[in-house]
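Input sequence (444 aa), recorded before submission:
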Amino acid sequence: MLALLVVLICTILAVEFVLDHYEFISPAFIFTVSFLVASIWALAYQTKWNLNLSLITFAVVLGGVFEFFLISKLIGFMYELLRGYSSNISGLEETQATNKYGLLVILFIEILTAVYTVWVVRKIMPAGSVVESISLYRGAVLASMTGTKITALPHLLNILRNFSTASGYFCAYLLAQDLVYRKRKNYLLLGITVFAIFNGLLLGGRGGALNLFIAFVVYWYCILKRKQNWLSHGNVKILIGAVFGLIVLVFSFQWLASVLGRDVDQYSKMDYLAIYFGAEIKNLDTFLTNQIYPVHTGVPGGQTFYYLIKAASGYLHLGIPDYDFMLPFQSVNGYNLGNVYTTFYPYIYDFGMSGLLVLVGIMATVSQLTFESVKHFNGKKMISFSTLIYGYIVTALGFSFFSNKFYENIFSVNLLQMLVTWFLLYILFFRVKWTLKLHSKQNL
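Predicted structure, token format:
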């Protein structure tokens, strides 16, 4: 059953690749690849994990992937039909942010945020070294998801870290733009991007740093293809390079965990990677075959929209009882399987199979509409906000095999704060400068 699943997902991926004119950054391609990778890892470990894939799990994974593919293609077709394709004019994005003082201020804030983060983490979790403090803090955060309390970060630090992340994405876009159009590095933009990635690691997690790095690659690719009017020439070559880069990134995963102070020496490299890239299929199968769903917890959508509900309850004083993620850790035959169950788990947990159909459909629709906006950007503005957002969406889709990254990251207060920051930075670097130039011409 699992081998058949791999074959059918491969078939969907091949059809998607051809229909989308060899475009490997489309939402359906990214989403399908994520589950293909997970299924291959699960197939390799099915004996060790006693994984006899049930029919219901087979139907959920294959059905979810196929629905996403189908709706994405339908939305893409309708978009082209109703709006038509307007080719982009190369060179319209060549204007670059030149406000060096503004970039220096952002870089200073990034450095300040890093120092402040380390100081706070050391204060919350005193230890012999910074790495040990970060590791202890990360462990405490994971424990807090199951009810254990941890000292909250200062409000000012949260503001600085949110700004650091948002400015990292914004400057990563500008850096990619500079590389494509001017074929040179802007070291201030590079420094801001690197420090934003570094800040993402200082609380012990790898997700934020990895997301920003992937987003930078997405920005570079989208700007390059826009310059080439989205011709498919060279796509296969870039895809091969991207695959090679991902392989290197994946096999450095355990090393990075060790650098951050995590005890991962008890795992072989392959076993460690299998936990992250394949155990989700086994965990989902365990849930679907041993649980009555939807699970009624008294908080509708509590798992799918966990962070949104938490934020709304706090800001609007809704009085929703405090609750935690329901993600029990799993193990089999002495193998640790972690506590992640794919993106489908919370949909079924909260709403059953009907929720799966609706939420996958919404995810595919939002992602494809954003991607169409990216492809049809006419270059009249200096920043494509749809491209900025799509870099964020790609990482959420790429980790769909892992957990519910889409609704956790996209339907969130954090993204709203990021959008506000991007808009303010856009005003600072472009609109204000344009106004000053206009006034200077009028004075002449």
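Checked by second reader. The longest helix spans residues 344-375.
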